[in-house]
């Protein structure tokens, strides 16, 4: 099998090695980590709290030590590498992501954010830059939730989220308790609450992540500024008509729940663009009762996943969807009920940080293009409590959570330069 580093370096223009960035160093590091948990399909398999995830963390910790950082692992398995600042008592600039993967996942999701946080230190060292504020790299445990249905555990422990008090109740997909699973990588439940940090000691959190979508590619841009992490509302809608014989009930006498539900699904897909450019709504699950080929459907239940980058337009979209569905139900003479299954508020990015991200991009002659994050990230958890900024790196064909996930080394190089310049501004600003 061709090593990832060879694929990355083939066709890489070494004149992109600017500001102390090394394409061959990053390619080699991405490649070595991709080989931990390598699958037959060429993907990576490093579930949270597995030995593979721990091995990847240990490797990066070794590189952090070589780069002169003070390295520690907390009780939730999160790893931090700290570079002292000239004014080391000041709150830290924290930058990082995760290193676990979904089953048979890709080689960039999470890992790229961790390695670019480290590449920043390498670039500063190469160019003789010294930070005034302390700078830390963070590797957060079990982001994907592929071992346990609960993801984002490491970052949740850092902020002391309520879920950390309930870890004794969760089991993994094989029925093992959380405590037994984490014991295999040398952790204990008691360590998780202790991983909570004093958030006043973190001045800002920055995460670089692959986009996992098609927007940057469509705009021909290597990197973009995330302008918010979408809030999510889950709904379950039930449409109730009257079941009947498919042969003996004339069309005019039917109260077909599936026909009404289909009109709702089609109408709902037209609504997000009426509310904002960033809103999305998806019907992903549809259950038909009694689900017989010769029976008029009497009941249909379907799920809705509704997202937008701010809570106000999101709630407006939810109301419009419910109104529209109710109108369709009345016209079709069927019953319509709905319940809200969950609400995850949107997380705003810090406007001052966003301005500085734009400055960093313009310094290297790139457009300061903004796009929302439709998926959750560690930045969503930490960013609810401290000023947060994210960069997205272009994903080839928008593919993610898949062995084909790819970002070119040229795009990684450009992102590394934008990140190092942006972080340099943050660690140089000593005003509180
Ligand atoms: Zn990720």
Question: What report would you give on this structure?
Answer:
- The chain has 432 residues and is of the alpha/beta class.
- The protein folds into two domains: 4-229 and 346-428, Aminopeptidase (3-Layer(aba) Sandwich), CATH 3.40.630; 231-344, 2-Layer Sandwich (Alpha-Beta Plaits), CATH 3.30.70.360.
- 35% of the residues lie in helices and 21% in strands.
- It contains 14 helices and 15 strands.
- The strands form three sheets. Strands 1-2-4-3-5-15-6-14 form an eight-stranded mixed β-sheet.
- α4 links the parallel β3 and β4.
- α2 runs antiparallel to α4 (111-127), α4 (111-127) packs across α14 and α12 (351-363) packs across α14.
- The chain is elongated and about 80 Å long.
- The model has no long low-confidence stretch (mean pLDDT 96).
- Zinc ion is lined by residues 98, 109-110, 143, 209.
